[in-house]
Amino acid sequence: MSTMQYSFRLTLNDEQDTQNLAKTLSKCFTEGVIYLIGDLGAGKTTFTRYLLQALGHQGAVKSPTYTLVEPYKIKQKDIFHFDLYRLNDPYELELMGIRDYLDVPNALFLFEWPSKGGDDIPDANIVIQIEKSEDDVQRFITFSLENAALYECLKEKL
């Protein structure tokens, strides 16, 4: 993974903060690749749920831990939520047809546990690192990204 040019840290004190952050991101970034990195229970799927809702998803968001991918179609937009936690070998991604997903134009890709995907997954436009506080109440978020315009958009709204 190449080093990202821009990065900033945020503290989320509660679910409301998480939801607001997801809303902000949904206004600035709607296609490309997001990596979500963090320990089990850090809130990667929770963040994804809020992001999908902010983009207009109605309905439940389930973690694709066993299926590896959960596709969504929201307002004519394709969104693919990958959870690679149970992936034993990146080759499994080839077998499940990851190319077909990655070839979808203008789509948004969310990857949890991207390190398990090896070279089979595309580089991230945004890396979101989520850490839990000692007492498990707060979350510390580190955003890393390449794009100056995206950085400005996020900074301005946060």
UniProtKB/TrEMBL annotation:
It is found in: Cytoplasm. One of its GO terms (biological process) is tRNA threonylcarbamoyladenosine modification. CDD domains: NK. It comes from the Bacteria. InterPro entries: P-loop_NTPase, T6A_TsaE. Keywords: ATP-binding, Cytoplasm, Magnesium, Metal-binding, Nucleotide-binding, tRNA processing. GO terms for cellular component: cytoplasm. PANTHER family: TRNA THREONYLCARBAMOYLADENOSINE BIOSYNTHESIS PROTEIN TSAE (PTHR33540:SF2). Belongs to the TsaE family. This is tRNA threonylcarbamoyladenosine biosynthesis protein TsaE. It comes from Acinetobacter baylyi (strain ATCC 33305 / BD413 / ADP1).
